[in-house]
Write a structure and sequence with these properties.
This protein is of the alpha/beta class. It folds into two domains: about 150 residues, 3-Layer(aba) Sandwich (D-Maltodextrin-Binding Protein, domain 2), CATH 3.40.190.10; about 90 residues, Periplasmic binding protein-like II (D-Maltodextrin-Binding Protein, domain 2). The protein has ten helices and eleven strands. It has a six-stranded mixed sheet with strand order 2-1-3-10-4-11. Strands 7-6-8-5-9 form a five-stranded mixed sheet. The chain is globular, with a radius of gyration of 18 Å. The two termini are about 25 Å apart.
Length: about 280
Amino acid sequence: MTTLQYNSLPQQLQIGAVSYLNSRPLIEGLEDLLPSANLVLDYPSRLADSLSDGALDVALIPSVEYFRRPGYEVVSDACVAARGEVLSVKLYCRVHPGNIRRLALDEGSRTSAALTKVILADRYGVIPQTEPLKMESTTRDSTADAVLLIGDRAMHDPEESFVEVMDLGQVWYDWTGLPFVFAMWVARQESNTDGIDEILSRSRDLGLSRVAEIAAEEAPRLGLSQSVALNYLTNNLHYHLTSAERSGLKLFCELAAQHNLVKPDVDIVFRDFVTA
């Protein structure tokens, strides 16, 4: 593989990516494309904190974190998005959604937590009390009326029945007709990341060309069939930040701001690339 040379990039660039199956196509070959960088894999919420603290130069963070922290820029047209059923972000309801009074939120992703609150408030007229759910926990670890699970474990059916299981990607798309962006590559505006957009796009393109191999490698580790893993990566998820995804981002920001979940009137700044 050809190593891209960007003399302006810091020699020890710290890059953070999500440790879930959904991000594998985005980081395929990244360490070969940019061998001087240090790739850190972690949960989305922890990546957001590390980027804010300056421990990371670039990170794949929950989209809601962009709206909450001023001084960020989107630095790539690669993202994790859904245009319908996402499969890995689900709200398990023990009562009708309109009767939810206590809500357990997976600590792994703040975007999915915010999306859940927006949907429950705007679609069902409820603003439940919330409690955290540890990242390793299952629905059985909470007695709340509804439990939000994200990531690889949300792709397995829990060993209990529910009144309703809501796939939040599908709910959002049916409601708005727009894609939902769960995570995107972000850097602080003052960071020296000139050229990182091309590297991240090439890594994404390489990952999509190898998606069958990624599914075959990851499926056994996650307890999934290869066909389910492949379908998830190719049909449930979309990895290009187009104008449709930008519209979805803007609408989500507006709705979240109405419920005081993010700052109002956030300007989404895109650096070094043009979306389709």
